[in-house]
C-alpha cells in the first residue's frame, strides 16, 4: 500500500515508518520538525531512514531517501497548511493515512495552549477533509491514554466514558475522536483512534520520564519524582506499539460498524509502579538516582491501565517487559549521547 505517516520524524512515526518500509509498503513521511524538543534528534531519526538533513530542511518539497529509494519519501509541512496538505493528497493518492503528528506533552500544554489547537485540532481537521475528498481507505490517528483522565476503573476500556480530560492535550485528543466519529458518520471515512499508553524505547522523546531520568543519572543530577512516587503507568515498548498499529492498518472494517469508526487501546496490559520503573533504570545505568520527591503536577494522572482485549482478538500481544525495554533504551542512549 501507499501510506502517509505524519509525524515521521517523531518517536512513534520514525519507528512505524521504518517497519512499514521494511514490509515493502510505499511510505511518504511528513513532519514540520518543530522545536518543541531538540531538532537534532528528529533529523537523526530521518537520517536513519536515509533522508539527509539538507533535504529535510526544505519546505513542501518531497525528498527521496537514498537508503530506501524505492519506497520512501519525506516532506516537511505543517498540518495546518490548508493549501499544501490537500495538494499532497491529490498528487500522491494514498491508500492509508497514519496521522501521528501532534503537539505532544501534557505539561507543555499549560504553557503554550495555542500550539495544541493549531496542530491537534486545526491540523486534524485538515487531515479529515483531505481524507474525505481523496477516497482514503483508512485513517488511523494518534489518540492517547490521557483521554481517560482520573478514571477510577481498575483497567481502562474503550467502552468507558471519557468526559473529563485533565489537560488541554487530553482534551484535543478527545476532540480528535469526536471529529473522526463525525466524519465516519457523515462521509463514511473509515477511522481508527489509537489510544497509546506511555510509549518508551530507543529514540524516545527527551521530555519523557525514561529519557529525563536516564539523562539525569548519567550527569549525576537529581531526578524529580512526582506524587511522591505514588504513580503507576502502563509502560508500552515501542515495538509493541508498532505491532499494534500494523495489525490495525490491515484490519478489515467490521460490517456491523456503522459508521466505520473504531477505537483501540495499544498498551502493555501490566502496569508498573513509577518506583519499579526507576529501579530498572538504576539497574541498567549501574548507579542509584538521587531523588527529589514532589507533589502531583497539574494535568497529570496517578495511574493508567490498558484493557487490550479487543486488540488481542486481532492477534495483538505485548511481548516486551520493563527490564528488557529499559535496557534497550539505555543501550541506545549511551551509544547516541555518551559515545560521541
From TrEMBL:
<dbReference type="InterPro" id="IPR001509">
    <property type="entry name" value="Epimerase_deHydtase"/>
</dbReference>
<protein>
    <submittedName>
        <fullName>UDP-glucuronate 4-epimerase</fullName>
    </submittedName>
</protein>
<dbReference type="Pfam" id="PF01370">
    <property type="entry name" value="Epimerase"/>
</dbReference>
<dbReference type="InterPro" id="IPR036291">
    <property type="entry name" value="NAD(P)-bd_dom_sf"/>
</dbReference>
<keyword id="KW-0520">NAD</keyword>
<feature type="domain" description="NAD-dependent epimerase/dehydratase">
    <location>
        <begin position="3"/>
        <end position="252"/>
    </location>
</feature>
Amino acid at each position: 500500500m501507499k501510506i502517509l505517516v505524519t509525524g515521521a520524524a517523531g518517536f512513534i512515526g520514525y519507528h512505524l515508518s521504518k517497519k512499514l518500509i521494511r514490509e515493502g509498503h510505499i511510505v511518504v513521511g511528513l513532519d514540520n520538525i518543530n522545536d518543541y524538543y531538540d531538532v537534532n534528534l528528529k533529523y537523526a531519526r530521518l537520517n536513519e531512514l536515509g533522508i539527509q538533513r539538507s533535504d529535510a530542511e526544505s519546505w513542501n518539497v518531497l525528498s527521496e531517501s537514498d537508503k530506501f529509494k524505492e519506497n520512501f519519501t519525506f516532506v516537511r509541512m505543517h498540518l495546518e497548511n490548508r493549501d499544501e496538505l490537500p495538494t499532497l493528497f491529490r498528487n500522491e493518492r494514498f491508500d492509508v493515512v497514519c496521522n501521528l503528528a501532534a503537539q505532544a506533552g501534557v505539561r507543555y500544554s499549560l504553557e503554550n495552549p495555542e500550539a495544541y489547537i493549531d496542530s491537534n485540532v486545526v491540523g486534524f481537521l485538515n487531515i479529515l477533509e483531505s481524507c474525505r475528498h481523496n477516497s482514503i481507505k483508512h485513517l488511523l490517528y494518534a489518540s492517547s491514554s490521557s483521554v481517560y483522565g482520573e478514571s477510577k476503573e481498575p483497567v481502562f476500556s474503550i467502552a468507558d466514558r471519557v468526559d473529563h480530560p485533565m489537560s488541554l492535550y487530553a482534551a484535543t485528543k478527545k476532540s480528535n475522536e469526536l471529529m473522526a466519529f463525525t466524519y465516519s458518520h457523515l462521509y463514511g471515512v473509515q477511522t481508527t483512534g489509537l489510544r497509546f499508553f506511555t510509549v518508551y524505547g530507543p529514540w524516545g522523546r527527551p521530555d519523557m520520564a525514561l529519557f529525563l531520568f536516564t539523562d539525569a543519572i548519567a550527569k549525576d543530577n537529581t531526578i524529580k519524582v512526582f506524587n511522591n512516587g505514588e504513580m503507576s503507568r502502563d509502560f508500552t515498548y515501542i515495538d509493541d506499539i508498532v505491532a499494534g498499529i500494523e495489525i490495525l492498518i490491515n484490519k478489515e472494517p467490521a460490517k456491523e460498524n456503522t459508521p466505520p469508526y473504531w477505537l483501540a487501546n495499544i498498551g502493555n496490559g501490566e502496569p508498573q509502579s513509577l518506583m519499579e520503573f526507576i529501579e530498572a533504570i538504576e539497574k541498567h545505568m549501574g548507579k542509584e538516582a538521587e531523588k527529589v520527591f514532589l507533589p502531583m503536577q497539574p494535568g497529570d494522572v496517578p495511574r493508567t491501565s490498558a484493557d487490550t482485549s479487543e486488540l488481542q482478538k486481532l492477534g495483538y500481544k505485548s511481548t516486551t517487559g520493563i527490564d528488557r525495554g529499559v535496557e534497550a533504551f539505555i543501550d541506545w542512549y549511551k551509544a547516541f549521547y555518551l559515545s560521541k
